[in-house]
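Work Package 3 (structural annotation) set out to generate three-dimensional models for the target panel prioritized at the project kickoff. During this period the team completed the workflow that converts sequence records into discrete structure tokens, so that structures can be stored uniformly alongside our sequence database. As a representative example, we reproduce one entry of 441 residues exactly as it appears in the project archive.
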Amino acid sequence: MTVIEAQIDRIVGPTHHFGGLGVGNVASQLHAGQPSNPRAAAIQGLDKMRQVASLGVPQWILPPQPRPDFGFLRSLGFSGSRSDLLQFVMHDSPLLLSAATSCSAMWTANAATVTASTDTEGNLPVMTVANLSASLHRSIESSQTLLELRSLFRGVFDVRAALPGGALMRDEGAANHMRLSGLDGGSGLNVFVYGDGSPEPQCYWPRQTLAACQAIARGHVLEAQNAFYLKQHPDAIDKGAFHNDVVAMSHQNLLIHHEWAFAPESDGEILRLQQRFKNVTGSPLQTLCVKSHELTLEDAITTYLFNSQIVSCFVSGQPVRTVLCPIQVQQHQEANAIVERWCDQGVFDAVHFVDLGQSMDGGGGPACLRLRVPCREDELGRLPVSAAWTESLDADLRDIISERYCCKLTLMDLADIEFCEQALETQAILAKRLGQQAVLK
């Protein structure tokens, strides 16, 4: 049975700024406090969606989440009018203001973990919203994400609330999950990547736990022999690989990873994965390991090579596999040479380099900006067309963004009540155009 991988991206919100809130995220820390360009960020995201859609890949769009989240600030004890509240928070705790206005939901790979209907014992497609409990600014996303995904996938997917929070159940969604399958996308193997457990990273808090991965696998009723658990290398986390998709990527029968992506104790699980893949699909898993002498771990994280977005479509009845790489890969001699080699070897039929400077400066590349949703054709046909990418929708979204988004934003600007009220109004306008319920906070 053919399974098609739809791509779900979210429009970057008008309060996009560089707050430096991403602990363990090198780019986030490096650009903290610098002026951002929300208009450019949103347009760059739309440009990537247009590129994906032009390849014949199903592309759906979510609106920005409402920010500032005044309810979040009031839950922390701040009171008064909205104008006074913004001033109080800016004076008392600028980091909390940054969290309340963060557009980190733009990195939709962290929205949920998704299981195809062909992979579950009950043939039911399931997704579990990520709790993102490792970061305060991201943990406030899950309740809104649940409403959005239930609206978008109503009657198609069983969309479940996030796992209970707490240190043991840290879950960051699809950024730490990989699905491997044959070229038809049929029955797949699900690979979960976690960072906790001995040996622990020395510098940064692992964002995904083994317990959370196992809870999701149980909840999605995956066959035990088709679920795999790989431990991130603690050195990779300490170098800034806060998610697995910073050092590894996958698509259908292809697994590509850096030499330091996984801890040595995962070697046995990788061998089991390779053997099971051949048993299920009848063909070998294509595994490519990039060695440190080819590309250092530091350069892999800087260029986001492994955060490239891989998509497939059929052209004249023939499968075509394309990789969308950050433009930073093209500008880096060693990283670019690796991609050229992959294309020469037939791993990819085409490569496109995308400019996502605003997202990259905040710590997210092409793959961070999308949630992969494997669907059968009948399931895909039941998704609402109002949120599906079209030329007309794209043009309308660009008009709204060009008219209402600013080109320069700092944290100080986020204490301006007029700016914040307009930002909430803009988010509501975008939500309405996408057929989502407009929510004002």
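The first helix runs from residue 26 to 30.
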